[in-house]
Each structure stands twice: as C-alpha cells, then as structure tokens.
Design a protein that fits this description.
With about 220 residues, the chain is α+β, with helices and mostly antiparallel strands. The chain contains seven helices and nine strands; from the N terminus they run βααββαααβββαβαββ. Bound molecules: coenzyme A (COA). Coenzyme A binds next to strand 6, helix 6 and helix 7.
C-alpha cells in the first residue's frame, strides 16, 4: 500500500526510528514524497468460544453469578446477599449437575480465556418433557451489544432442539427492557404477566412470561 505522507505523519506509521528518520529527512528534502506504508501489525482477534464449564472451574461460575447480582440486581429473583453466603461446595455441585445435564444445563461465553457470559436451561419430565425453561441469561456489561448473548442462545437452542425439546419458555422482570428486546428479537412472544411477582425493598416488580416454539 502506498500513501503520500509528510514527515511527522510518517513517523506515526513507521515503527522503526531509523526508518522514520530516513523517511523524515527524505520528506523534508522533497517536502512530499511517496513512501511505502507497511500494513499495520496484526491485531489480536477476540476469540469467542461457547463452552460448558467443568466442575473444576466452579470459582468462575461463582464470580460471574455474584457479579451479575451486583451489576443487574433487578434482573434476578435471587440477591447478592444470599448468593454470597453459598458454600464453595454448593457452587461446585451446581456446576456438576449442569455438567451432567441432570435436569439443567449451562453454557458459557469465553472470550480470550475469560468467562464473560452465560445461558442456562432447566427442565423436568412427564407432561412437561418437551418444555425447557431458559434461565440465567447474562453478559458482563463491558461485553454487551457484541452478539455474545445471541451466540449463547443460538447454541443452547440447537442443543435443546437436538434433545427433542419443542418449546422454550422464560420469565423476564418487566424492568429488564434490554432482555425483553433481546428475547423478542429471537422470536419469543409475550404470553402473560405475573403482576407484583417480586418484592424487593418495598418495591414490586412484574414478571413477563415469554415462549417460543422450536417446531414452527
Ligand atoms: C440482555 C443481555 C443478556 C443481552 O446481552 P448482549 O450480549 O448485549 O446481547 P446481544 O449483543 O447478543 O444483542 C442481541 C440483540 O438483543 C437486543 N438488545 C440487546 N441489548 C439491547 C439493549 N440494551 N437495548 C435494546 N435492544 C437490545 C438487540 O436486538 C440486539 O441486536 P442488535 O445489537 O443487532 O440490535 C444483557 O443486556 C444482560 O446481561 N442484561 C442484564 C441481565 C438480564 O437482564 N438478563 C435477563 C434475565 S431474564
């Protein structure tokens, strides 16, 4: 790539001082000159992986969950105060249960080795064996609006479809407009509202029920 540049601008683009000085002299002598601008050094790409966390990585689950309860306290039925009292054994056993798909599963978004988001699903059996409830949808604030939740939801949806679930449902607190918009974009439809379902510090919140069919 060739560009026409004058001294100081050249020095910003060329890394080597020697080359910069030579090019700068040349530029001053001729006022303007054609110089070869090398391509910028390769940037480290952010690598996103959607993974299941093995039980040995329970501390990362704990950190993400406790962070979510602090950054978005209104989004959850649980509170930071109660979750911060859980024993390490409890976090470990929760991850073990989801690792084994025992009535629930969780997927995590890992960006360059850091866990930045999650999505989960829970299910039962009998007449509800075809229904999975989506839970724990969360991405760290600094990683939002980059499509990470969409990647997580797409992954878990395929996973649940392979397991023959045909209906997904979820509950979203009415104040969580980001999440509501997100679910709508993915084809979830609002089918009901549980009024005054949550009570926190004297304030009620509604929960919206949404569902999406995978066989349509
Ligand atoms: C909801 C949440 C998970 C979305 O995560 P995200 O990684 O930022 O979402 P994505 O980047 O994949 O966004 C996908 C789409 O969702 C919608 N969306 C996401 N955030 C939005 C916002 N702040 N406002 C409006 N629409 C939004 C948009 O349609 C977006 O597509 P676009 O970026 O092409 O417009 C995230 O905001 C979050 O963790 N919120 C707090 C926790 C929470 O409320 N969880 C839900 C519990 S039920």
């Amino acid at each position: 790539m060739f560009e026409i540049k004058f001294g100081l601008i050249i020095s910003e683009r060329w890394g080597s001082q020697v080359v910069v000085r030579r090019r700068f002299r040349k530029a001053v002598e001729r006022k303007f000159t054609w110089v070869r601008i090398p391509p910028p050094p390769p940037q480290m790409e952010n690598q996103l992986d959607i993974i299941k966390l093995p039980p040995s990585r329970w501390a990362e689950l704990k950190e993400l969950r406790l962070t979510s309860l602090q950054t978005d306290p209104d989004a959850w039925e649980n509170t930071y105060t109660s979750a911060s009292l859980y024993s390490d054994e409890l976090w470990k056993s929760r991850l073990q249960t989801s690792w084994d798909d025992q009535g629930c599963t969780n997927f995590f978004a890992e960006v360059n080795g850091k866990i930045v988001g999650t999505v989960g699903a829970i299910w039962s059996g009998g007449k509800l064996a075809h229904v999975a409830t989506i839970v724990s949808v969360y991405v760290l604030p600094e990683y939002r609006r980059q499509g990470i939740s969409e990647a997580l939801m797409s992954h878990i949806t395929n996973y649940l479809q392979d397991k023959k679930f045909i209906k997904l449902k979820l509950f979203v607190v009415s104040s969580q407009t980001n999440a509501y918009e997100f679910y709508k974009k993915l084809g979830f439809k609002e089918v009901g509202r549980l009024e005054k379902e949550l009570l926190s510090e004297g304030k009620y919140s509604d929960e919206i029920i949404m569902e999406r069919f995978l066989d349509e």
